[in-house]
Amino acid sequence: MEKPVRKLWPGRALRSILRVPLFLNGIFLAAVLCGSGSGVTPALGGNGRLQALRIDGSFDPDSNLLNATAKLSFIGPAGMQQLWLANELQLHWVRGGAMTVLPFTSETGLFAVQCPPGNELELSYSGRLPSRPDPFAADTPRGKAVIDDCRFLSYIADYYPHPQLDFASMEMSMRIPSGWNCLGSGTLRSVQPEADGNIYSFSNPQAKGMSLVCGRFRPLGQVAAVVPLRLHGWDGFDYRRYYSDAEMARLLSFYSERFGPLGVPELNILFRRGKNFGGISYSGLIVLNIDESWDRLQPRTRPDPQCGSLLALDDVWSDLLSHEVSHQWWGGLVSWETAADHWITEGLATYSSLLYLKERRGEKAFARVRRRFHDDVKRYAGRGVTVDGGKLKLLHRDIQVYQALVYMKPALMFAALADTIGEAELCRRLRDFLTECRCRNVGTIELLSRLSAGDEELRLQLEAWICERGLPKGL
């Protein structure tokens, strides 16, 4: 049975009274409690955990118009669930549930739905997303804008209703107009041609969300590797000016040997035109910004592709690739539990890049970059603690503070731990961690306990790195 959506939008006076500040993913929220028709405030958050999500819809990248239905399946009785959906998207109907909407901010919406006795829920929604939904936009320095024509449907932007960012089985079929191509965070199962477009179908057996990238790119080739690579980019782009097939295959083999098999049938890499140093990694899909003018200029006249980033280690393009590929393990196979645990994926990805730097350039290069990391972290160590996470960007308005404390300080901690227990032993513990925690979110306490392997003194030393200001001398 389909039931219409009933939205309850609290007035400005109510919002000013009920201010309970929360922090979630870098956004301060005002908690709003809305009563049910009987005058009893419903308890939010059912016992059921999301098991599977299927999205069917259409997306027009020219107008950013999205029209879709989402079917959610839960493990156990779903009860009263909190679901997130971008405020730009309008709910049309819910099959099997009565709904009220609890708006937290102008940027993101939260609503509660009483699920039917079963464990499935289906919702229809549509709307026009922001003109350029681009995950790179927030951290792009002025004058260094991305200049290609990609459109992102990122799971962190709440383009589909979901109860939380957790691992689940994901399926998607999305109709895209002619002239646009599409990649998703999963395996491309089929492309069904239509008169004025194509229906792209993706699936992922276990992923923390489903994301799409639409653009006017084309396939560039394939690379035989331990995980087969499919490369995509704009017409006329020669990726071999930046990366060799052998280097990409070597990188995947290195991480697979250190951390275990990735377990995905293929990995897609999209090269997009952009003048800022950065990339983003979804499960099975990596997007890298490439400044196409860089390789045609003499070294003394080349722009700095790092754009002030502290994370470029030795060779800017190799560093970018190694960091984003490592996120297929740290983020793709295991992820953070709360905003305070964001350092887990970024710190492990940064440490993985350091390990690959040592493999590629030797001990001296590794020691040199490690000393530079130490100096940069020491400069910012008094500005906050690692578990502040994204709050550091809001408090300091300085991306380097965030990079130093969330990326680099944990990487130094892992390097110090390797000095204490041995690099081979640390990699073994990380492999065991991935095996035992595969496809789920993990918190700071659990990871530090696993890494310390029952040594309480060592666990407290690791905790000091993550939860205290300053820079510990060692372990």
Helix share bin? 25-40%
Radius of gyration: 23 Å
CATH class of the domain at 329-467: Mainly Alpha
Number of beta-strand segments: 23
Sheet having the most strands: 8 strands, mixed
Question: Based on helices, strands and strand pairing, what is the structural class?
Answer: alpha+beta
> What is the CATH topology of the domain at 329-467?
Neutral Protease, domain 2
Outline the low-pLDDT stretches: 1-45, 140-145, 297-303
Look at the structure and name the CATH superfamily of the domain at 329-467: Neutral Protease Domain 2
- On the 0 to 100 scale, the average pLDDT is 83
Q: Strand percentage, roughly? A: 25-35%
Describe the global form. Answer: globular
Strand order of the largest sheet: 1-7-10-5-4-12-15-14
How far apart lie the N and C ends?
60 Å
H/I helix tally: 10
- CATH architecture heading of the domain at 329-467: Orthogonal Bundle
Describe the structure.
The chain has about 475 residues and is α+β, with helices and mostly antiparallel strands. The chain has a domain at about 330-465: Neutral Protease, domain 2. About 30% of the residues lie in helices and about 30% in strands. The chain has helices spanning about 10-15, 245-260, 315-325, 345-360, 365-380, 390-395, 400-420, 425-435, 445-450, 455-465, and strands at about 1-5, 20-25, 25-30, 50-60, 65-75, 80-85, 90-95, 100-105, 110-115, 120-130, 150-155, 170-175, 180-185, 185-195, 195-205, 210-215, 220-225, 230-235, 265-275, 280, 285-290, 335, 440. The strands form six sheets. The chain has an eight-stranded mixed beta sheet, with no helix packed on it. Strands 17-18-19-21-20 form a five-stranded mixed beta sheet. Strands 6-9-8 form a three-stranded antiparallel beta sheet, with no helix packed on it. A hairpin with a 5-residue loop joins strand 17 and strand 18. The longest helix is centred in the last third of the chain and has 23 residues, at about 400-420. It starts with a strand and ends in an 8-residue tail after the last helix.
